[in-house]
Amino acid sequence: MNHFNISEIGRFAKEVVKEAGALLVKLRKEPMVLEEKHDHSDLVTFADKEIESFLVKKILSTYPQHGIVGEEGIFDQGDTYYQTQWVIDPIDGTTNFIHNFPFYGISVGVVHKGVGMIGVVYNPVTDELFYAEKDNGAFVNDVRLHLDQPITLKESLISTAMFWENPNTKNTMHPSVIQIYKETRGLRMFGGAAISLCEVAKGTLNAYIVPALSTWDYAAGIIILKEAGGTITRLNGQPVSLEYGGSLLASHPSIHRDLLGILSKH
Ligand code: 2AM
Ligand code: CA
Ligand code: CA
Ligand code: CA
What we know:
- One of its GO terms (biological process) is inositol metabolic process.
- Its cofactor is Mg(2+).
- Keywords: Hydrolase, Magnesium, Metal-binding.
- The chain is of the alpha+beta class.
- The protein has seven helices and 14 strands.
- It folds into two domains: about 5-145, Fructose-1,6-Bisphosphatase, Chain A, domain 1 (2-Layer Sandwich); about 155-265, D-Maltodextrin-Binding Protein, domain 2, CATH 3.40.190.80.
- Helix content is about 35%, strand content about 25%.
- The relative contact order is 0.13.
């Protein structure tokens, strides 16, 4: 009954994210209206809510039977079970958006019966639209992404987020982070999960490693990276769920095992 037509839904998802992207570019030029969510570093703007509302309206007018999980909670799922669920982050990298630091984007994933089927991420600064369908490859503006050049840990550039709490001494860097820093070309923190995952899919970054995220931060990005040939697990090597958030070790396939080895030591 609830047939999932991946190419039709994918085409729609791409279109709707492009439209939301144009709206985001327009909203960026308007005066910034922002408020704190939990503290001074956890912010939400008028644009986050506008983009999520726009996406929810568009999705439900075409697919009224689908559910939507979004960071700003515009659509209330209640206790209803939806076979097909859209997992959206209207602006991933809100702090970057506010500061005009060019590393933020719109992230939309489509999950059917718990399986990630479609991922769309739009970077309005570079005008890059990342798109992937399960088993059908990953693309940036219609150019195929594929991680087929092997790399070593020594020649890789790693992205992470926030300083990890040191389990022994607190308030200093986690020993895994220090070791990864020493054994690679370097560590970067850009403040955006979705774009980080897409950059790993492009090969400009070689891994994205984070201790905790929500599903909307990575739903689209992990489908894109997986279809580009990347390897994605939790930090302990377990498979990543699209139903609940958690850690992420998302990398080029040739360095995943080495990174897991480092993470398991500390
Ligand atoms: P956001 O911009 O959509 O909130 C920042 O390192 C990355 O982590 C961003 O992708 C950010 O998404 C996400 N994040 C999740 N929870 C966060 C929080 N409480 N504070 C800041 N960033 C958070
Ligand atoms: Ca947020
Ligand atoms: Ca986010
Ligand atoms: Ca967000």
